[in-house]
Design a protein that fits this description.
Elements lengths: L52 H75 L7 H38 L16 H13 L6 H14 L3 H12 L38 H14 L3 H11 L8 H14 L3 H22 L12 H13 L14 H9 L8 H14 L3 H14 L6 H15 L2 H13 L6 H6 L3 H31 L5 H18 L6 H14 L3 H12 L8 H21 L25 H16 L13 H19 L3 H14 L5 H15 L3 H14 L4 H29 L2 H14 L6 H14 L3 H14 L6 H14 L3 H13 L9 H14 L3 H14 L3 H15 L5 H15 L6 H17 L3 H17 L10 H20 L7 H22 L7 H24 L11 H34 L5 H13 L21
Helix pairs in contact: 1-2, 2-3, 3-4, 4-5, 5-6, 6-7, 6-8, 7-8, 8-9, 9-10, 10-12, 12-13, 13-14, 14-15, 15-17, 17-18, 18-19, 19-20, 20-21, 21-22, 22-23, 23-24, 23-25, 24-25, 25-26, 26-27, 27-28, 28-29, 29-30, 30-31, 31-32, 32-33, 33-34, 34-35, 35-36, 36-37, 37-38, 37-39, 38-39, 39-40, ...
């Protein structure tokens, strides 16, 4: 019965029958894609060009062997095919001979048995026509046998018809007007009659439902559609529709159908497995003749059981019917329900093959959901709905992103819009889908559709971007690939799209990059980078494609111009070394050089590679053992060699002259040699340089090669080799034009310079006197030699090395007197001054320094300021303080470094402290403070300057001004945030100490006087002054400078002690009679007060001594403290003798 099921495709609305479009499979027309790979470029690569005779012979031999192999392979394949065909035919004939007769015999026997069974069943029915037990069962079996017999007869007639039709078409052709043979027909009347009898005569029989079902099927096959429909209805809705009679008199006309006729029906047999299928058949019959209302009710009745096996088929038919009734909302909902049902079943059953029936219509359901949303008048009022199309789809599906079929609906909506040439809306829909479901299986196809849409719009930039996305987002290794790799069909289809896109993207992106570069657009670099990625992706997946050679070269070019130089070098090298083609071999070899040179430059700019200079005397240091050459440079050297090997440019002696190609080869040879030379591989570099001299002597590159060879001997101090090569190069006479003449002169100079080498050897070996004598002799021999001043300088240095400072001084003087324009003149003046100092010739030294510092001849000398500073130092040593200070100020005005200028300005003021002019000292330090008072770096000097200003004022007797300066010193120290305990704290410590000294002086000057209340007032003032002095000294302690802390402790103790002394010396009030009891009581009272002050003084004296001893300090204040303590505690603090500091000469008379 399954063979009789009508095709599910018949359920599709008629307007949706497939119409071929250009480019689709089956349309018969190809669709050219703009930007696709150029087929003309997919030609077979050129035959490899042999580079030698041996290589050519080897290639010919290889091709002959390959041809013989191909011939043998083809012969073997032909033999195998022939044998296979013969063996297959023989095997088939053998099988037919063995089984054919058996099959025919079996069919004949089956037919005989069936005929016998029919005869016996008919005989049985004659004997028992009304048995409720046996009659319906036999009738059902007899009907089945008649059905089988008729089906077999019809099959034979169909086979004969096909043969006859084939003969007719062969004789008359397909367009003949002759009448073709009539097709056979099947007659199931006997079977139908028996089935009808079972249903009408035995309605309670257990298989009546099966009889009605088969009756409906056979009537349908006999094209009695009304009878078929009522047969199915008699099965599924028996209370309303009787079994159709043979004459059709009781068949209910479809025109009488009313809504609800198919609802609330009672089936002929409750629980029959045929009910749902019967309703489906009823729906199909209505559907086929556009009777949508009864068809829908029939389908709805079939779908009553959601768990039934035919629920999905009923559901999809309901959806189609609703669509044709233009009930788009309900249709979309049913279609959506159907797709969800199928997807659930797929997930449950794992394999699509296990799903049957309507599951095959899932894609059509998706498309029809999209078609529903294309419709913009769902309420059928003749106007476009407010929310329609894509907006309606977004409203209904935006939040359902987790359902598998939703992205497919978006894709189909875009497709429908594109078919209607609404490309921009279609792109918007597809782009939304891609952004929302980037890993969906259909993502590559959507990207391809976006590309096609942009191409249709002729939007080239957008098409390029879309193609690039297609070529890169779905490659092997991407997130999309890993997500979908379990579905080989999806992956295969995506890879086809990617292959086409990769080539097109690469070619188009490359062309765009070239255009941008020609316009100087900085975006060209990124465009080249994209082209390189596209080429690389294509070649990685299709390395053996016919056009891979050309694309690989294009990729190398793109990598180079995208500044990926190392990757470009690798790509160029692959093309260069590819034996399948030679078109780009030389160009690729040069490309390797350019790429590696560019990468080397970028590495140097980034400080990741430091390229050693070419070894020259005075610049390179030994030892000169070969050093390891970085891998990058060995690659570059090999790249130079490969270009030289491949370049067909003629060498010297081939009659071509000095062509540009030859010049390039000379430069390449020099660059290759220079790499070995820079890393002291002198044997290799000299071999390469000699090749330049041999092959390119007429080129100026040969001059550089000659210099490099000489330098290699000079730096190794091989003076014999140096002399030999200067002579050899002079004989060769390489170079051209003015450079050649200059080279000859340079070689002469080098020869003379070699004569200095011997003296240099003595100098470097430490034989300074011998070296100096030879330098002086060389100058005497040729005073006008360009190295004469250098020789004298070397001689003077040598004299200094052996302590002949007088000779050194005289030799230095010769330099700046005989060679005043020498580069060593200023240094000679400086060294002359230093040597004068060694002999205590200070005036001469100052004159030398001032000549260097003040003469216009040496205004560019780097020693000029040093000389000025040295002169100022010397003048200070010889006690010319005012002149020294002036020179320090001059130095400060010329110094470029702000710190040095500040130091010199401060030094100028310090020098003046040694004079008897405190006013000048104050002015100098005031000048320093005025200029550098706000400089953070000079904070400690500013603090010291304010201290010195105070001291200068104190020296002039200006106590008020001094105190002001001292307080400014302290305030500046605090304001600048300078730290206690540091050297900088010395100055505020001293300033505070000096302020305390003024307070102590006030105390020392005070005398107790008066009697009575006057004495009392005087005593109070004394105590106030001692307190003030004590506090002032206490203020020194926080600066934590030991010297001033010791001084402050001592002076504070001294203030207490002096107070005690003053108290004892105070006059006794006159009212007290001397030596009376009251008088002695007063004296005792005064003594007790004095002792209290002494008790305060003694611990401070002891602490001063103790701290001095603890920190290893013995100075004025510790000595004085010990002296005072000796008075009170002589046993504990004995006096120490001063060390002898004068020596007496022994009298030897």
């Amino acid at each position: 019965m399954g063979l009789l099921d009508p095709s599910w495709a018949s359920a599709l609305p008629r307007e949706e029958r497939w119409q071929p479009r250009e480019g689709e499979p089956g349309s018969g027309a190809a669709r050219e894609q703009a930007g696709a790979g150029d087929r003309s470029r997919l030609a077979e690569p050129a035959r490899p060009v042999p580079k030698t005779i041996e290589e050519a012979e080897g290639i010919d031999e290889f091709e002959r062997i390959l041809a013989r192999y191909k011939d043998a392979s083809e012969a073997a394949q032909d033999t195998l095919r022939s044998v296979t065909v013969v063996e297959a035919a023989a095997g088939r004939a053998k099988l037919e001979a063995h089984y054919g007769a058996q099959i025919v015999a079996h069919k004949q026997k089956a037919a005989q048995l069936r005929a016998t069974a029919i005869a016996r069943y008919e005989e049985f029915l004659k004997q028992r026509p009304d048995s409720p037990t046996w009659t319906p069962e036999i009738m059902l079996r007899l009907a089945e046998l008649h059905f089988e017999a008729e089906s077999e007869r019809y099959a034979e007639l169909e086979k004969a018809y096909e043969a006859e039709l084939a003969r007719f078409l062969k004789e008359h052709g397909p367009n003949s007007e002759a009448k073709p043979p009539a097709p056979p027909t099947a007659s199931y009347d006997q079977a139908v009659s028996l089935y009808r009898g079972v249903a009408t005569r035995f309605p309670s029989y257990a298989h009546t439902d099966a009889a009605l079902y088969m009756m409906g099927i056979l009537l349908y096959e006999s094209e009695d559609f009304d009878g078929s429909r009522q047969s199915f209805l008699a099965l599924s809705c028996a209370d309303k529709f009787p079994v159709p009679l043979a004459d059709g008199s009781n068949v209910v006309a479809v025109e009488s159908f009313q809504v609800g006729d198919y609802s609330s029906c009672a089936p002929a047999r409750e629980g029959s497995k045929y009910i749902a299928e019967a309703w489906l058949r009823v729906g199909e019959i209505h559907y086929d003749v556009d009777e949508y209302d009864p068809a829908y009710e029939a389908y709805a009745a079939a779908a009553k059981d959601p768990d039934g096996p035919l629920y999905d088929e009923a559901l999809i038919r309901m959806a189609w019917t609703l669509y044709l009734r233009r009930e788009f909302k309900a249709a979309a909902e049913r279609l959506d329900e159907f797709v969800l049902l199928v997807d659930r079943a797929k997930r449950a059953r794992k394999a699509k093959e296990e799903l049957g029936g309507a599951a095959e219509l899932r894609e059509d359901a998706i498309r029809y959901i999209a078609k529903c949303y294309v419709e913009d008048d769902w309420d059928l009022d003749g106007n476009k709905d407010k929310v329609a199309g894509f907006a309606r789809l977004e409203r209904d599906y935006k939040e359902r992103t987790g359902e598998d079929h939703v992205p497919e609906i978006y894709a189909q909506l875009g497709e429908l819009l594109a078919v209607d040439t609404q490309f921009r809306p279609a792109i918007h829909v597809w782009d939304t889908a891609l952004r929302r479901w980037p890993l969906a299986p259909a993502a590559p196809l959507l990207q391809k559709k976006i590309l096609d849409a942009y191409l249709a719009l002729q939007d080239k930039p957008a098409a390029l971007a879309a193609r690039e996305a297609l070529a890169t987002h779905y490659l092997r290794g991407t997130k999309w690939f890993y997500k979908n790799e379990s579905d080989p069909d999806v992956i295969e289809e995506a890879m086809k799209l990617v292959e086409e896109a990769l080539v097109a993207v690469a070619v188009e992106q490359h062309a765009l990059a070239q255009e941008l570069r020609s316009r100087g657009d900085p975006q060209a670099t990124e465009a080249y980078r994209k082209a390189a990625r596209a080429y690389g992706a294509y070649l990685q997946r299709y390395p053996d494609s016919p056009n891979a050679y050309k694309y690989r070269f294009d990729m190398a070019e793109s990598l180079f111009y995208s500044e990926a130089y190392l990757e470009a070098a690798d790509a160029y090298a692959q093309v260069r070394d590819d034996n399948t083609g030679s078109k780009f071999q030389l160009e690729a070899a040069r490309g390797v050089v350019f790429a590696l040179e560019a990468h080397m430059q970028s590495e140097q700019d980034a400080k990741r590679l430091v390229l050693p200079d070419m070894p020259k005397r005075g610049q390179a240091t030994g030892p000169f053992d070969p050093r390891e050459i970085p891998e990058l440079l060995t690659r570059l050297q090999d790249a130079y060699d490969r270009v030289i090997m491949l370049d067909p440019s003629p060498a010297k002696g081939e009659g071509e002259g000095e062509a540009s190609g030859v010049s390039e080869l000379a430069t390449l040879r020099f660059n290759a040699a220079a790499i070995s030379h820079r890393y002291y591989h002198f044997d290799d570099s000299q071999r390469r340089f000699e090749q330049i001299l041999e092959r390119h002597c007429d080129s100026n590159v040969a001059i550089n090669a000659g210099f490099a060879i000489i330098d290699s001997y000079v730096v190794r101090e091989d003076h014999k080799g140096t002399q030999q090569w200067t002579d050899k190069l002079a004989q060769l006479g390489c170079g051209e034009g003015a450079e050649k003449e200059k080279f000859a002169g340079d070689l002469k100079t080098l020869g003379l310079a070699a004569r200095f080498a011997e003296a240099n050897e003595y100098l470097e070996a430490g034989a300074y006197e011998a070296a100096a004598d030879r330098y002086v002799a060389l100058v005497a021999e040729d005073p006008k030699d360009e190295n004469a001043d250098r020789a004298l300088n070397n001689a003077a240095v040598a004299y200094e090395k052996i302590g002949r400072f007088g000779s050194a001084r005289d030799t230095y003087q010769r330099i700046y007197t005989e060679y005043p324009d020498s580069e060593f003149a200023d240094d000679a003046l400086l060294r002359t001054g230093l040597n004068h100092v060694r002999f205590f010739e200070f005036d001469e030294a100052v004159n030398a320094y001032l000549t260097l510092a003040e003469s216009d001849r040496y205004k560019e000398s780097e020693h000029r300021l040093l000389a000025l500073k040295n002169a100022a130092d010397l003048l200070e040593n010889v006690q010319q303080y005012e002149k020294s200070s002036r020179l320090f100020k001059e130095y400060a005005g010329k110094a470029k470094d702000p710190g040095e200028a500040a130091d010199a300005t401060f030094r100028a003021a310090q020098v003046l402290r040694k004079t008897d002019d405190p006013k000048a000292v104050e002015a100098a330090f005031q000048q320093f403070v005025g200029k550098y008072g706000g400089a953070e770096s000079q904070a400690d000097k500013v603090v010291e300057a304010q201290l010195r200003i105070g001291q200068a004022r104190a020296e002039r007797g200006d106590r008020k001004g001094a105190e002001k300066a001292y307080r400014e010193c302290i305030a500046t120290f605090t304001a600048r945030g300078l730290k206690a305990g540091t050297t900088a704290a010395d100055h505020p410590s001293e300033a505070q100490f000096l302020l305390s000294e003024y307070a102590l002086a006030d105390l020392l000057e005070f005398k107790l006087k008066g009697r009575g209340k006057a004495l009392e007032k005087s005593t109070k003032e004394l105590f106030d002054r001692v307190v003030e002095a004590s506090k002032a000294y206490d203020a020194v302690i926080p600066y934590r400078r030991l010297e001033w802390v010791l001084a402050a402790m001592y002076r504070r103790a001294y203030a207490f002690e002096i107070t005690a002394i003053k108290m004892r010396k105070a006059p006794v009030p006159g009212v007290l009679k001397p030596y009376t009891e009251v008088w002695f009581a007063y004296k005792d009272l005064v003594e007790k007060g004095a002792q209290q002050f002494e008790a305060m003084a003694l611990p401070l004296y002891e602490e001063t001594v103790k701290r001095g001893k603890e920190y290893g300090v013995a100075n004025e204040w510790t000595d004085k403290a010990r002296e005072r303590l000796n008075i009170y505690k002589p046993a504990e603090y004995p006096l120490l003798h001063d060390p002898a500091i004068e020596l007496e000469l022994e009298d030897r008379r």
